[in-house]
């Protein structure tokens, strides 16, 4: 197999592989999946929420998640470097997309360094998740299986089975957020109610929705690299319709869950600002400013977490 190892680094680029380069490889500045642990904490009953063991387990799970994501994005960068998609996607818009966040393409890490890092993170992540399960007060089988699936799928997102290249990217993006909300909640409580599941889906939809804008922007480079996403399979117009449908699905879940009795009356009312932000990024995306729409979608996800955390804390406080 021939690798297209295109580097966009300038003549002064360093191959030192310093801590900053590894931090960029691990994408430590992208914390959106980790916010699910705040939601988990807010969903807990007050007696469990303030227990010292709860903070210890959530801290251990947080480290496990960070390490697994580091492995996932490390392998993703290596694959994108080899097939040339990162050079194609970042080369035309390096200023807005911060080329330094791709250390292989920028020339601040070698492929060998990145591989060593990704494999080390894979092993450490698996060990940390096993330790999290062992330390948990509850171990429902479905949660253990779901945790294992999330770890395996993360590592093979762009490596091994290369799930994101086989048409599973959008499913993975929402699935990881759902899994990493339900698993720690179940490890702390032993079960998950319908309302917890609804909030987990709303949370998981956030990374998927802003990921769809990335896919829109990257469609040509991904298509050339053989990466299958909805954006690479359909026309730009059809993909805009798909993004609108996925956005509408989240809004319908928010409203419909309350109407169906799966969520309390206050749930859609609390998330009205998020609905407004969703409409805003749709309009901006339809007008062609994809990266701005993506930024608003990211902010909408983070606002969702803030509102749900606050609302759950108030609701459980009133109930107690």
UniProtKB/TrEMBL annotation:
Provide the organism lineage as a comma list: Bacteria, Bacillati, Actinomycetota, Actinomycetes, Streptosporangiales
Q: Where found?
A: Membrane
- Read off the PANTHER family from this record: 1,4-DIHYDROXY-2-NAPHTHOATE OCTAPRENYLTRANSFERASE, UBIA PRENYLTRANSFERASE DOMAIN-CONTAINING PROTEIN 1
Membrane topology note: Multi-pass membrane protein
The transmembrane residues are 30-48, 54-75, 117-135, 141-159, 171-188, 194-213, 241-259, 265-284, 296-319
> Primary place of residence?
membrane
The answer, when asked if Repeat is one of the entry's keywords, is no
Under what name is this protein listed? UbiA family prenyltransferase
Keywords carried by this UniProt record:
Membrane, Transferase, Transmembrane, Transmembrane helix
């Amino acid at each position: 197999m021939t690798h297209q190892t295109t580097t966009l680094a300038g003549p002064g680029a360093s191959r030192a592989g310093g801590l900053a380069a590894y931090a960029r490889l691990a994408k430590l500045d992208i914390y959106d999946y980790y916010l699910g642990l705040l939601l988990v904490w807010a969903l807990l009953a007050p007696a469990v929420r303030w227990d010292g063991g709860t903070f210890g387990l959530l801290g251990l799970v947080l480290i496990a998640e960070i390490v697994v994501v580091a492995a996932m994005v490390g392998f993703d960068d290596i694959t994108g470097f080899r097939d040339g998609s990162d050079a194609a996607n970042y080369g035309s818009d390096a200023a807005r997309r911060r080329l330094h966040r791709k250390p292989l393409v920028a020339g601040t890490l070698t492929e060998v360094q990145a591989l060593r890092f990704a494999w080390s993170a894979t092993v450490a992540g698996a060990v940390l998740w096993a330790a999290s399960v062992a330390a948990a007060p509850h171990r429902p089988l479905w949660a253990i299986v779901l945790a294992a699936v999330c770890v395996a799928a993360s590592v093979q997102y762009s490596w091994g089975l290369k799930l994101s290249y086989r048409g599973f990217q959008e499913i993975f993006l929402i699935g990881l957020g759902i899994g990493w909300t339900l698993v720690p909640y179940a490890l702390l409580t032993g079960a998950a109610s319908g309302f917890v599941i609804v909030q987990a889906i709303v949370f998981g939809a956030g990374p998927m929705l802003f990921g769809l804008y990335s896919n829109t922007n990257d469609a040509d480079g991904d298509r050339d690299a053989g990466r299958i996403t909805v954006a690479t399979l359909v026309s730009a117009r059809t993909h805009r319709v798909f993004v609108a449908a996925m956005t509408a699905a989240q809004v319908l879940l928010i409203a419909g869950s309350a109407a169906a009795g799966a969520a309390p009356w206050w749930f859609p009312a609390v998330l009205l600002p998020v609905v407004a932000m969703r409409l805003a990024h749709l309009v901006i995306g339809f007008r062609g400013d994809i990266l701005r729409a993506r930024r608003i979608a990211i902010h909408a996800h983070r606002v969702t977490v803030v509102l749900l955390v606050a609302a759950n804390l108030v609701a459980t406080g009133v109930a107690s």
